[in-house]
Each structure stands twice: as structure tokens, then as C-alpha cells.
Amino acid sequence: MTARLGSIANRWTSLVPAFAVVLLVLTWGRDLPGVIVALVTVVLAGSVLAAVHHAEVIAHRVGEPFGSLVLAVAVTVIEVALIVTLMVDGGDKSATLARDTVFAAVMITCNGVVGLCLLVASLRHGTAVFNPEGTGAALATVATLSTLSLVLPTFTTSKPGPEFSSVQLTFAALSSLILYGLFVSTQTVRHRDYFLPITRQGDVITAEEHADAPSARAALISLGLLGLALVGVVGLAKGVSPTIESGVEAAGLHHAVVGVIIALLVLLPETISALRSARRDRVQTSLNLALGSAMASIGLTIPAVALASVWLSGPLVLGLGPTYMVLLALTVVVSSLTVVPGRATPLQGGVHLVLFAAYLELAVNP
Fold it and tell me: What pTM was computed for the model?
């Protein structure tokens, strides 16, 4: 019976990504009726679950922290492609798209995903334990990238409005790439043990004990299917975005809500994977996914939009308003206090979730 269930799981997680890509090709650039939108939504959800499955297969094969890095980078690369595509199609109304999407990713991961994982792990296991050295390094990088890319443009004077000049944008893009490259080197080579899960006694867990690692062939197949699933997730999310935009406008909500909804859809695979790790008391893996996703979102998006701005005619607004700057500052302070002890209770998880709820409320009702 167990073997049959495993065979069914392997079959659907292989078929859904391929079907999602076929559906994406058939629906790309077309106005979709309600029935097709419903079908796209179902396939989108299936692609998210398939992406989580294949990401976990790869993570089990290569181990941590490489496994969480694969999912974070894969999702972000395709997310960046989606942002640039929407900016090309959107004209002046997409001037704030990169800013809104990157800030949404930071708030979702640093408060929503981190808060949920800390809450789940601490309720299930008493306290959530993790390595403060690795998590602190990730948080410092996210805070620096966020400030350089999203806060400074509000205060520069070379161009009117919250925009960078060409030289400033080039500096921000190069700085983002350098910092992200340094972090990946630290995470995977020089101080890899800082990013591995730890026991309640503080010992590093270097290997998973619950099952044999999949073969190299199975991992490569899952890598290919993960790519297909993520293309399906992001592409289908773009396909349903006109329906989302229409609904947001009909409800009289701020246009930034569209970016929040799409970011939530795109980050679903990482969120589910992080929650599963938290349930297994692998909180460090959850934090690697959350903070790594925030870092990759900034470190890859800003250079990409900087390059795209060469041929995009509209403005590129990156600076945050005062309300969101306050939320970002509070997030950095609270996250620092959460990271320093190396363990967390349900209280810390609840604080992060309240910050995330405040962000959502202000996005809907600015």
C-alpha cells in the first residue's frame, strides 16, 4: 500500500509540472474566461506542491545548506524574469513594481515565513533552536541590501523623486551582486557549518537519519522537474494577474496589493518547505530558506532591473515611503533581537506575525 502511494505521488509530481508548462503556452498573452482561470488556479496550486516535493528531493541529496539555496535561487531567478516581463508590458504604471515586489518578498519571508516557522517549531518542540552565527550573518546581509536598495533612493538628490541616478543604480546593482556572492560563498564553502541545523544541545546535524538519500539520477530528474514547476508557478501567476488586478480595482484597493498577492503565490513553495522543516525541528533550514529568499530577491532583482532600465523608457521608483520604512526598521530591530539568543519561543513567532499582519493591513489600507 505504501509503495503504491509513493508511486502515485511520484507520478503526479512528474505530470503536473509538464501540464503546467503546456497550459502556460496555450494561455500566454490571452484573455482568459472564468472557467480557464479556475483551471489555471488549480494547476498553479498543484505546481506549488510539486515544486516543494522536488526541492526536498534535491535538498535530501545535496544536504544543507545547498538544498535550501537551490530552491531560493531557482524561485528568485524566475521571479526576476516575471518582474522584468511585467515592467516591459506595464509602461509607467509599473514604475514601482520592482520596489513593491522586493519589499513584499522581504516582509513575507522575514516576518510571515519566519514567524510561522518559529511558532510551529516552538509550539511543537518547546523552543525553536537555530545557529545565531549563520542566521545573524544572513539577517545583516538582508538589512544592508534592503537599506541600500529601498531606503537610500528616498533621500538621494541627484534625481527628483525616490529614484537613483544611473551611477547610483549601477553602484546599488554591483553592491547587491557582490554581497550576495560573498554570502553564498560563506554559506556553502568557508563557514558551511554555521548554516546547518543544530540539536538542542548545540551540536551540528551533518546528515539526515530518516531515509537514504536519493540517487544522483533521481536528483537530476527532480532538478529538471523543479525548473518546470517553477516556470509554471510564475508563468501561470502572471496569467491570472489580470483577473487579480481587476478584482483589486473593483474592490477599490491600492495597486500595490497586486504585487503582494503575486509575491505570496510565487513564495508558496519556499513557505511550505520551510514549514515542513520547522515541524521536523530543523529551524535553521527554515531560516535559511526565508532569509535566503529575501536576500536573493534583492540581490538578483536590483541588478536585473538596473540592466533592464537601459531599454525601459519609464521611471524606476525604488525608494520606500515613510510608513514602509518604519516597518522595515522595526523588522530589522525585532529580527536582531530574535536571532541573538539562538532560540525562540511562541512569543517571538507571534511578534513577527503581527508585523506581517501590519504590513498586509497597510498594503490594503495605506
Answer: 0.81
